[in-house]
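FORM 12-B: Structure-to-Sequence Request
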């Protein structure tokens, strides 16, 4: 299993649009055969900050996600117009 945690910061006043894009991206990503979990969180006190927590069966599943049409449309095309990807980190479970 591979885990990806990504932080996005919406531009001022674009929070609702970012949330809408993440909603569509989440719906499509969860349909991928290699996707174990795909959750988007909004920061409790900083409404512009979003955390995406993703789990994939393996590296190949993550690469398939990154090549998927919905990822290219939403994460590569739409989201950068509405905000900035601040950080992305890959993890593996301890057990």
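FORM 12-B RESPONSE
SEQUENCE OUT:
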């Amino acid at each position: 299993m591979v885990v990806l945690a990504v932080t996005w910061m919406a531009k001022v006043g674009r929070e609702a649009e970012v949330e809408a894009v993440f909603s569509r991206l989440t719906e499509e990503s969860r349909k991928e055969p290699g996707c174990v979990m795909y959750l988007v969180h909004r920061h409790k006190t900083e409404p512009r900050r979003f955390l995406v927590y993703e789990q994939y069966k393996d590296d190949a599943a993550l690469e398939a996600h990154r090549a998927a049409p919905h990822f290219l449309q939403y994460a590569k095309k739409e989201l950068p117009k509405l905000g900035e990807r601040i950080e992305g980190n890959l993890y593996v479970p301890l057990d």
